[in-house]
Amino acid sequence: MSDTPVIGVLALQGDVREHLIALASADALARPIRRPEELAEVDGLVIPGGESTTMSKLASLFGMLEPLRERVRNGMPVYGTCAGMILLADKILDPRSGQETVGGIDMIVRRNAFGRQNESFEAAVEVVGIEGGAVEGVFIRAPWVESVGARAEVVAEHGGHIVAVRQGNALATSFHPELTGDHRVHALFVDMVRAVG
User: Fold this and answer.
1) What is the value of pTM for the model shown?
2) Which of 29, 32, 59, 91 yields a CA-CA distance of 20 to 30 A from 44?
């Protein structure tokens, strides 16, 4: 891998464009990913926000679920925001019928924990590993992490709830840093991808 890693954004649903812009600003070559053969060509992957049940069904429909699980198991760096966090959880506390996850982080996540769409909010969040003060987190029907296993590290909390977790090459936030002009979380992820290369 060159100094410019190729990072995909799972483009089945959700705020794909914003992640592509944030990754490009963090010096990665960013591209939308919809098919297994495209997944095979990237050094890392972002799973964006959206609707987690719909995303899991679309991933299954597009033949992406098993290839995603395999690449994450084999150490591909992956970053999930909001619905992406839910998809990276090994367990969902209140899954919808037929909802599956990719897994990869030893955590239990509660869907829509911070409330409905009209209860969305922004908050300053201190994230371990990010210099320069708190990042602005946008919480939209956001999940939170009920608990983590021994291998997962809590890297941010808000209001007494876990909102960011890292485990090895996997990172997840319940908030959307891509909706702000601050791309430090994406820069952290790009560095994680570079470290694997």
Assistant:
1) 0.95
2) 91
Q: What is the pLDDT of residues 68-79, one digit of tens each?
A: 999 999 999 999
Catalytic positions are 82, 176, 178
CA distance linking residue 23 with residue 46, whole number of Å: 9
